[in-house]
Specification:
By secondary structure, the protein is an all-alpha fold. Helices cover about 65% and strands about 0% of the residues.
């Protein structure tokens, strides 16, 4: 494999690089705007997790109560996940991913 080395002299560039940045909008953004956007992003993340948990359960064909029993968590936990009040973390999140990708193996390992 051949290696080619290039040197770029920034002083000889025709024009400065500009991205698609709206400087006026950026300058007008306040800390409150940033906090509101962060809260909105967090809410969307929770909804994504809720939809994922609901989709996994429905793909397996379980009711919420049956799913809770099968993965050994409370029914309230399943409800909180699916309503977006809480998000599965750690081992629960990993288990949902395994149930999504290899449901037969995951369910066999649980029982």
């Amino acid at each position: 494999m051949k290696t080619v080395r290039l040197k770029i002299d920034a002083t000889t560039l025709d024009s400065p690089r500009t991205g698609r940045l709206n400087a006026a909008q950026l300058d007008a953004t306040t800390e409150a705007d940033i906090a509101a956007q962060a809260a909105q992003d967090d809410a969307l993340t929770m909804q994504d997790a809720a939809q994922f948990a609901r989709r996994v359960r429905r793909r397996l064909g379980f009711s919420q109560a049956e799913f809770a029993s099968r993965i050994d968590v409370s029914l309230e936990t399943i409800r909180n996940w699916e309503q977006g009040k809480r998000s599965p973390t750690g081992a629960a999140k990993a288990l949902l991913k395994v149930l999504d990708k290899a449901p037969e193996a995951a369910l066999a390992a649980l029982y």
